[in-house]
Amino acid sequence: MKVIYRMSDKGYPKQKLALVNNENCFKNFCKNFLGRDLSNLVLIYDNCSPVTTEKINAIIKDLNLGRCPVTLNTNAGNAGSYLIALEYALKNFGDDDIVYFVENDFIHDTLSDFILMEGYNLLGTQADYVTLYAHPDKEMPDNIQPEYIFRSKSCYWRTCISTVMTCSAKVKTLREDFDILTKWTKGAHPEDHSMYSELRQKGRLLISPMPGYATHGETKWLSPFKNWDKILSESAGEISGMNIIQIGANDGEDHVYEFINKNSSKINKLILVEPMPQLIPVLKSRYSKLLNSVEYENIAISGNESDSPLKFYYEINSNLEASTFNKNHLLSLGCMEDKIASIDVPVLTFDQLMKKHNLVELDALYIDTEGHDYHIIKSIDFKKYKIKLIVFESMHTDGTNFASKNMNDLIKYFEENNYRFNAGTPNSSATLKV
Q1: Per residue in 174-214, pLDDT tens?
Q2: Which of 11, 287, 293, 380 would you label with 141, given CA atoms 20 to 30 Å apart?
Q3: 3-class DSSP string for 85-109
């Protein structure tokens, strides 16, 4: 079997399992599908930074996999890179070779390679296209329709009208279906449902195992009946790295950036929260060459839920470091009334932010919100979330340059939740006791 694995730093904004990223999914695939043998792998780097290629090469080296025999570098986009993969298969593989096209955000279970091969040896029929992904959209009321069930040596299979672009077929099938495959992959994004639907109309048989032996990493569409978090975690090992959130990132020129710069290879996910929209491009410019797994949230974090945007105040023609919910804070810092402006910013609670990114554990949480740190920390349910280190701006807990009652309340709150408090100026920290 031949494998063409498409890697990309670009993608659609989707809520995925916390450990899903280029490195973890590739390591999972190497261990659970390839069996550490890269001899039949073609690796396509599409719109990938040098950081990504270096990390993938490091994984190959760490696993003692030798070298990937074929790597292609492209800037073709999702549909474009699939067409490149398709054309490569048709030109370089034999008609009876099975080709498995794999996208970079898929998780594979153990024995998935054997199961895929079994799909081509069904009892009583011959499949044309075989996927390992049991897409749950087939169970939605509007999509339910009569299908056939078959059996192989190890599991049952069902026919399905469509799947995603992570799928397999023999080269001679791809050659015969070339017009249909290219018809629906000419735009920016593959129209996979339309493509497979037309293939079914042609008489092609697409099957998937029950339950699935692979899944897309998006939480909404996980293959049912398996703990994919655990499967990915066990195969990813140390590559899973650290999860970090910074609330109040400003322009990124700070101690957090210095830490990330020194430990970029150990980071799984970094979420930068910054309410001022003009600072988001600055953050992206600063971090883009350093790290791929960065999520940028142009919002504010509040201690209370709000369905509507809240007023956020800032000093005109400043570095925006003192931007705040509290206008009086700016006045207390010496800003002139006529130099203060405001914008409406969307807000999330800390709980909503964690749920959005499917996180329950953080290695570090950095907060610098000009006096709002107290309210954010007090809103955190430490029975629900495990945060190893919290660093926050403690000098404004009770007002501008003033820390008293609220600060004492925070110290007590940390102690109640098994944290060791470390006082400092302007920042203090709390470390979870082991």
Answers
A1: 999 999 999 999 988 999 999 999 999 999 999 999 999 99
A2: 11
A3: HHHHHHHHCCCCCEEEEEECCEEEC
Residue length, the chain? 434
Identify the CA nearest to 21 among candidates 357, 322, 337, 304.
357
CB contact at 8 A, 21 and 268: yes
Which residue spans within 148-299 are E strands per DSSP?
149-151, 156-159, 167-170, 206-210, 214-216, 242-247, 267-273, 294-297
Q: What's the predicted TM-score (pTM) here? A: 0.61
Q: Which parts of 203-357 fold into alpha helices (H)?
A: 228-236, 255-262, 280-287, 327-332, 350-356
Identify which of 424, 411, 328, 418 has the alpha carbon closest to the alpha carbon of residue 372: 328
| CA gap 229, 217 in Å, rounded | 9
The residues, ordered by sequence, that sit 6+ positions from 244 with a Cβ below 8 Å of its Cβ are: 256, 260, 267, 269, 270, 271, 362, 363, 364, 365, 366
pLDDT grade for 414, boundaries at 50, 70 and 90? very high
Contact 203, 177 (CB under 8 A): no
Cβ atoms 21, 269 nearer than 8 A: yes
Burial 349-370, CB ≥16 within 10 A → b, else e: bbeebbeebbbeebbbbbbbbb
Beta bridge partners of 215: 107
Mean pLDDT score of the chain: 90
Which domains are seen in the chain, by residue range?
2-236 (3.90.550.10), 241-432 (3.40.50)
The CA distance from 283 to 56, in Å, is 25
Is residue 142 within 8 Å of 232, Cβ to Cβ? Answer: no
* 188 CB neighbour count, 10 Å cutoff: 9
Which pLDDT score, from 0 to 100, does residue 331 have?
83
- 3-class secondary structure, 296: strand
Task: Tell me the CA distances in angstroms from 10 to 13, 48, 59, 105, 106, one per residue in order.
Answer: 9, 8, 20, 11, 15
Q: Is the pLDDT of residue 376 over 90?
A: yes
pLDDT of residue 239: 43
- What is the Cα–Cα distance from 72 to 94, expressed in whole angstroms? 20
Angstrom CA distances, 415 to 333, 421, 431, stand at 32, 8, 10
Residue 266 — pLDDT band, cuts 50, 70, 90?
A: confident
Backbone angles phi, psi at 307, to 5 degrees: -80, -15
Instruction: State the Cα–Cα distance between residues 93 and 41, nearest whole angstrom.
Output: 12
